[in-house]
Batch of 3 targets.
Target 1
Amino acid sequence: MGQPSRARVRCCGDPPLPSLDVQQRLLQQLPSTSASTGCIECEEALRLNQVERRRNVGLAIASSLAAASLYTYQRMNPLNPLVLLRQLEAQSPTLPSALASGRGTIVEFYAPWCVSCREMAPCMQRLEKRYGSQVNFVVIDGADPKNAQLVQSFGVDGVPHLAYISRERKLQTTLIGEVPEKLIESNLLGLL
């Protein structure tokens, strides 16, 4: 199996152990050879204690480096849903070009302050990756004043607001609020 443990169980009647510094000072006061003191176990226990202390310091340093690396990675690669929404918006075609493509189109209106919009962002990204070659995904910031005319023409009175437009440029379905991915996908399949 394994080596027997060198630790011994302390009981409530044992005197408290001296700190590591006190143990080291006591060890320095001992004669240089353990044979003359007859306390090989004490020296071995102190040596093991020092090894364990070095190991613990090494683990603390390694843990700190790992935490710093993870923090840096997350800062460099944000998983912030608002950043994701902005990326989807920047990459999406304009509404006129999407409608002119002859494919079905999903128009998603969002607002930066909308919690549901941010929660749905990863779902919309997955669907766009899966169906982006068959259906247009247009993402519009409904809170941006430059999009006020689109907001009005689609009758957006709450976000998230998903408008499904057929190849024939007819509004098929509108979903408002946080909607399960399966429902979004099933309506999307009607545009194919």
Note: DSSP finds eight helices and four strands in the chain.
Target 2
Amino acid sequence: RESKLPFLLFLHTAADSSMRIVLLGKTGSGKSSLANTILGETLFKVCHGAVSGTTDCQSEIRGAQERSVQLIDTPGFFDTDPDAPDMKKEVLNCMIECAPGVHTFLLVLKVERFTKHELAVADVFSQHFSEKALKYTTVVFTQGDQLEEGVTLKEWIKDNHALSTLVEKCGGRCHVSNEVQLKGQFTQVYTWLCSSNYKWTDLPRRGCCLSKDLLRAALPVQN
């Protein structure tokens, strides 16, 4: 039986003024840089080599307008087998950081010529994450300045079947980030975050949470 990472969401009625965002992606995708861009500060370690600069889940909170934003940067979840013990441990750590629940996932990919490794990220995410989690996911492409002149993001995505399928499963929610242009412009990024995922308009009223019971059942912690 196929094992799915238990990002299983359910709704509850608790009011919540915090916007909790989990960044996912393989090492080198630009997750940590994107997190720094969103918050307008260098709070997350950035590593430009093949070794991940993020070895544990890291959480940072900053206020914005009437709601605070909590970003959870994760290790390269797609660098190893999703069923590996270390992977399961970090998933659990991520869930602890996200209590009482996640509002959205940002799946971070680079704008570049897709290789079999990048295609594997799209496949793993589609295969191992629940369909409901995909409904709360936005695909973010970093290094937007690498797009060929005159080519739109939609056109670039359309040229790759696996990528277009992934974006479609995420409700068509995708965004290209140019860190150079957005650096330090927290209000602009916050506005994008609020507009890119329509479900957030209801979140302060109805909320969104992760089932800890399902997590424990799917990922038993060994003492």
Note: Confidence is low (pLDDT under 50) at residues 1-15, 197-223.
Target 3
Amino acid sequence: MQATPKKPCNATKINEEFFLFYLLFIVVPMALKSYFFIHVIMLID
């Protein structure tokens, strides 16, 4: 890993962390909703 003065490592790391939180707050609720939906359909059937 080369430390270039143009792009500090901290900025990219913070962006990656925000991206991970973004994924967590969107993917996890979607997975929970789909799981709940499938569970309800199985209960109805």
Note: The radius of gyration is 19 Å.
